[in-house]
Fold each of these.
Amino acid sequence: MSPQERVEIGELSVREHEAWLVLRERLWPEEPKEDLVSGMDVILDDPRRNAVFVARLHGSGGELVGFVEAALRDWAEGCRTRPVGYIEGWYVAPEHRRRGVGRRLVEAAEQWARSRGCTEMGSDAEIANTLSHRAHAALGYEEVERVVSFAKRLIP
């Protein structure tokens, strides 16, 4: 059985919320758990504008090995149309990478965006995350902009 046949891509189910949280913690380990949970609530509260697709491993009780969070945005850098589909988060467990799982997750997100009238899809990655840059490029995404963010704490 090929790796692609062993993994099923589908929409997140209610019983998978804890497993999704575990994967979100792996993607964003520096984020406090309560922030990750509140972000999940925001996504789940507006299913017309948000979707989560997961990769389930067959023969393991449906263990989640990846996810993609997609949203409709009013605009995105480098995109000309409105609304635009957007990849908000994308993660595949390291042992399941380079087997087409990430591609299939993104294709599910793109199809979801198309079904909502989008003709473009946007995404982003941290500037140092060259693995994500290469993965995006392999799926046909083009770099459109680089940004350096600044912050200053204002103490009253």
Note: The two ends are 62 Å apart (CA to CA).
Amino acid sequence: MKKSLYRVSSDICYSTDRDGTIILNIEQGKFYSLISAGSTVWQQIAAHPEGATFDTVVDKLMTNAVEFANEPREKVEQAISGMLDSLIESRLIETSDRTSIRAFDSIRCLICAAIVAPVRGITNLLIRRQMQRSAAFVEFVMFQFIRWVGRFPARYRTVKNWPVEPCPMGESEDIEQICSAVNEAATWYPRESLCLQRSSVTACLLRQNGVPAEMKIGIHKLPFASHAWVEVAGKVINDHKGVQTYFKVIDVW
């Protein structure tokens, strides 16, 4: 009998429906999909933030999962033990006696955080001088550095913690101008800017202009695809409005 408590690892986002569970591991920048019994195991662990015991998970599976209902308990325990080991190996869950320590990743994030404040100061100055495209270009460079050094976790923290400047919310025309400035800056930028890069810059630049923009991360299961876009007051402003229907939101930055 296992005595450990199992809980969802930090920096994990997920979405569960009747088809299963999609998980975003922010540390790795990877998506995982769980179906059937695997999704049920995940739901039981997620339902206990303080940690779920092995017996609790087994009992729930034998009660709620059809494929295990008539199986011997020993066989169910073996199957669930294998699932849990796999989830731990993927760093999706952790145990009370084996909490993950990621000191090196924390150092990477601290290095990235150290450049964010001065960059925000520079771009705020450019914005006050009506140089939105230049501000967007500087932020493309910043997020490229973050991509190299801090990777996905540092990007997540940067966008998530980027403040909305205390000035009046922009009109729709101003929002369009800011999105156009980001698109123009992207054409100058020597590297390809994918949806994650563009949306990171768009959300941050809008917030610097007093617009409470939200960056959405969504997934589509079949065929599997992930996407990032920006919304203001529930309206898509840097993509086609159909993304809200096609992609299911798994996290908001």
Note: The chain has a mean pLDDT of 84.
